[in-house]
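Worked example

This section walks through a single chain of length 113. The input is the sequence exactly as stored; nothing has been trimmed or padded.
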Amino acid sequence: MEVITIESQAFKNLMSKVDTIFDYVITQLKIQDEEDGWVDSYEVCTFLKISDRTLQRLRSENKINYSRIRGKNYYKISEIKRMLDENLIRRTSDQLQDLIQNHIKNARENTNT
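Given that input, the structure is written out below as tokens.
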């Protein structure tokens, strides 16, 4: 085993840089989690103010990708964002942000229980 010694100030500078890198990685992971999260049909309809029938039409026309688990449909938030960007649904970005915030809140509550 080899022991390396450095000055206290150099060690503090190094640790500061490591902390900065750590904070950046955590921030990027949180952003990625927001985009990769899954929401159900109820959340999509509620926050985007669209009907179940509109969502069903988008599914049947293959305009939105989804996954069905035990009879319930789930959508990636990135897929909802794509639909808004392509004007398949005309809504404001505020409604998408509300959807994302609700998803994050629900995810935190589920992990705490």
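What to look for: The mean pLDDT is 81.
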